[in-house]
Amino acid sequence: MCGIIAAASNRNVGKLLVQGLHKMEYRGYDSAGIALHQKDQIAHLRTLGKVKLLEEKMIAEKPKSKLGIAHTRWATHGEPSEENAHPHKSNERVYIVHNGIIENYLDLKEFLKDEGYSFSSQTDSELIAHLLEYFLSKGNSMVDSMYLTKEKLDGAYAIAAIDRENDQNIVIARSKSPLLIGIGTDEFLAASDPLAIGQLTNEFIFLEDGDVAELTSESYTIFDDTKQKVSREITHIDISNQATSKGEYKHFMEKEIYEQPDAILNTIDGRVGGDDVLENIFGLGSSDIFQKVKRVQIVACGTSLHAGRVAANWFSAISELPTQIDYASEYRYRNPHVDEDSLLVTISQSGETADTLAALRYAKEKDYLSTLCICNVPTSSLARESEYSIFTNAGPEIGVASTKAFTTQLAALMLLALSLAKSRNRNPKLRKRIITALRSLPDTVQETLKLKDEILEIAPEIASKDNALFLGRGIFYPIAKEGALKLKEISYIHAEAYPAGELKHGPLALIDEEMPVIALAPESEIAEKLVSNLEEVKARGGTLYVFSDPSISMDLKSGRLINMPKCDFLLTPIIYTIPLQILSYEVALLRGTDIDQPRNLAKSVTVE
Ligand code: F6R
């Protein structure tokens, strides 16, 4: 999703701004642009497509500047095009970049048209440039103009702006969209994502909603919503090069799949001791709060929601708690009834997903006992706004398709199931069994990664098809859904998931030799029933690819049976996820798609 970077420096900033845009490419975007202050004029370059093209334009035009703003755009209002790309400008004077959505843009456009402004894009963002210019032209300072502009805007925004008549200052503002300041050496930076400037500093200031700040190469000043000067905490984050480069791998997604043993170890490390989970791993006082919990409500989106669906089974089996789960984008609109002593759990890799954040904010107005988030980014809005949290410690996930974030979310959710059970004095023997299994989970994941060679043999068969079905039962149904999501988003093959018992209620009509069926068949009390469901597929000429426990015997006419490593049943969903990730990756590689940045998708979805 859109990315902002800005720099006020004593050196030429063009290159560092473009490097920052490259670092944000993983978020997903369709166009890019830059505005560079050059004393009496502003160099304004925009391109449709990859940042590389903008870079080529920069190399050709060689603009020099010590003050600039840049942006990657992910279209919301108006098609992807050069005209709609940021920065947007007003009267060749004010240039702005914006993340978020301005909800009252139609009214504001009318107001500005009446004031004589004309629009050259279809975006909601362009009006911000005009509003700022409108207030500047009336003699207001940059900061005052930003406050006057803010008063008119409804919606979510992170903004960075420069004025041709001021070659020293950048003004930035935040409301509901992430924005931070980076303290560099002889320079100050701003960005929507710490990764964009992680090469230049490890000191960050996360702005709060309503904040406006002014940056020069010498200093920064932050004002709060009421225009009072404020000081905000400096956070130290070391974003090493290693974490943000592909190393020996072709894609970030591939690297992130193979990082999972370490990532899962990092999630569990320091949180279990002896035969149980440690106290208060979700924050001080969490163990006491958990004693009172009578019900859990989960909200999340996409892959994170699938993790929640698995966890709902764990909360029932291990913590003995009923759990309701909702798409974050739907939750607020179904007028949810909140039972007494309910715990709201949000799950998000980025912690900036607008729907999940909006659901949390809505829930905070309701009678929840408490709010808790499972998140990979400790500095995210979700983490800061939840009462309790646990970080998955997976390291930066750059590939748009979530892999290590998902399996570490599952590991963290298992810790939550165990902590709730412990506080509620439930199932001590089961807890002990799971803790033992958790300790060996990184090794089991490592062993599972060795299935790559077998998967490479089936990948061409799936890559040649247009559709695929994924089947799983019980706790494996969400894993089948995750497998289907992974395949569709990176290979563009249409894929659906069903609980295997549902096949005969409709989807069986789709089965023929063109429909590969990928099934998850662990050893379980319903394994026999699943095998019968798969026989139904076989009888209709469908090609089966079955990931199964060695104890399950099936005579396949075509397709393949792949034996999975042994693992405690409750943790097997994590293990069975791995081959599905590898399969999607290898299929997408064969189909030549843009694996790390699939079309139309964004890593961090900061619009509702
Ligand atoms: C799919 C994927 C998305 C995200 C979803 C929520 O591979 O990554 O479905 O899971 O956009 O994002 P987060 O977890 O950042 O809230």
Question: Can you characterise this structure?
Answer:
- With 608 residues, this protein is α/β, with parallel strands linked by helices.
- It folds into 3 domains: 234 residues, 4-Layer Sandwich (Glutamine Phosphoribosylpyrophosphate, subunit 1, domain 1); 175 residues, Glucose-6-phosphate isomerase like protein, domain 1 (Rossmann fold), CATH 3.40.50; 142 residues, Rossmann fold (3-Layer(aba) Sandwich).
- It has 19 helices and 27 strands.
- The strands form 5 sheets. The chain has an 8-stranded antiparallel β-sheet. It has a 7-stranded antiparallel β-sheet with strand order 5-6-7-8-12-13-14.
- Strand 5 and strand 6 form a beta hairpin.
- The structure holds fructose -6-phosphate.
- The site of fructose -6-phosphate has 15 residues, from helix 10 and helix 17.
What can be said about this structure in brief?
By secondary structure, this protein is of the alpha/beta class. Strand 21 (370-375), helix 13 and strand 22 (388-391) form a beta-alpha-beta unit.
Radius of gyration: 25 Å
Looking at how many chains there are and whether they match, the oligomeric state comes to single chain
CATH topology of the largest domain: Glutamine Phosphoribosylpyrophosphate, subunit 1, domain 1
Arrangement of strands in the largest sheet = 3-2-4-1-10-9-11-15
